[in-house]
Design brief:
Structural class: mainly alpha
CATH topology of the largest domain: MetI-like fold
Number of domains: 2
Largest sheet: none
Distance between the termini: 47 Å
CATH architecture of the largest domain: Orthogonal Bundle
Helix content: over 70%
Radius of gyration: 24 Å
Shape: globular
Strand content: under 5%
Length: 282
């Protein structure tokens, strides 16, 4: 009887502890973002006030100053074009390659797969100088295409690694049924496999976007003033005789994070979609 009575209490206590732990983790992760948001809504005098101000009248002047800068809008457009191109190129090349690794046995498959992952294991600084020399020889230095190719070099192995395991878990019987009905291998891949692999493609695209959107090292070396991206432009807020422009830096930082957050929420619904929902009729 004691065990029966104590069981609901134990479950409630366990649920309370879980919610407390999750709430604590959520607050810990959100605190830096909230702090940056608060700094972006302060004037320079309020930012430098001692002790720090926890109650103040917010201002949007920092956002207005950032958005009216011509170089910010140009850098935002460059970042959008470069990141979208890197994600699309990585998915268009990586998904078919991962499908080939998952479905077609051939000699040296394991070696080629491991060799592809070696590029991901290398530190970016180890290939930065060779890439710059190569792009200079090809006349691609300081262009958007050079940055796209650099990002694809590191995101492509990630896409192949993620999607290979995803394709291996998909039911091969659906592909065999399509082939028996007269579909080609390409048609099966496009109309049967890819729709079922949307959750995996969404996860891979989010990771590729984060890599391309937040990178500073390659963009700082492979771009110039006309092709620089937002992370490179944000370094300009640390220049000048007046010192660090905390308001402009934090405001630009919030603006930089918004597209990634929006894309992540938009792709989130695909992460929980059924793998073969609607593929087999009852």
């Amino acid at each position: 009887m004691t065990a029966v009575v104590g069981s609901p209490r134990a479950r409630r206590l366990e649920a309370v502890l879980i919610y407390v732990a999750l709430t604590t983790l959520t607050l810990a992760f959100l605190f830096p973002l909230v702090w940056v948001l608060g700094l972006s809504l302060k004037t320079r005098m309020q930012v430098l006030a001692t002790p720090p101000l926890y109650l103040w009248w917010p201002t949007l002047q920092n956002y207005a100053d950032v958005l009216t800068r011509a170089d910010f809008m140009r850098a935002f457009l460059n970042t959008m074009i470069i990141s979208a191109s890197a994600v699309l190129l990585s998915l268009c090349v990586g998904a078919p390659a991962a499908y080939a690794f998952a479905r077609f046995p051939f000699t040296g498959r394991s070696f080629l797969f491991f060799a592809l992952l070696v590029m991901r294991m290398l530190p970016p600084i180890a290939v930065l100088v060779p890439m710059y020399v190569l792009f200079s020889k090809l006349g691609l230095a300081t262009t958007r295409l050079s940055v796209v190719l650099a990002y694809t070099t590191f995101s492509l192995p990630l896409v192949v690694w993620m999607m290979r395991g995803y394709f291996e878990d998909l039911p091969v019987e659906l592909e065999e049924s399509a082939l028996i009905d007269g579909a080609s291998r390409l048609g099966t891949f496009m109309h049967i496999v890819l729709p079922m692999a949307r959750p995996g493609l969404a996860a891979a695209s989010i990771l590729c976007l984060q890599l391309a959107w937040n990178d500073f090292l390659f963009a700082a070396v492979l771009t110039n003033n006309a092709t620089q991206t937002l992370p490179v432009l944000m370094g300009a807020f640390n220049a000048g005789d007046s010192g660090m422009d905390w308001g402009g830096l934090t405001a630009s930082g919030m603006l930089v994070t918004l597209p990634v957050i929006a894309f992540s929420f938009a792709a989130q619904r695909h992460l929980v979609a059924g793998l073969s929902s609607g593929a087999v009729k009852g």
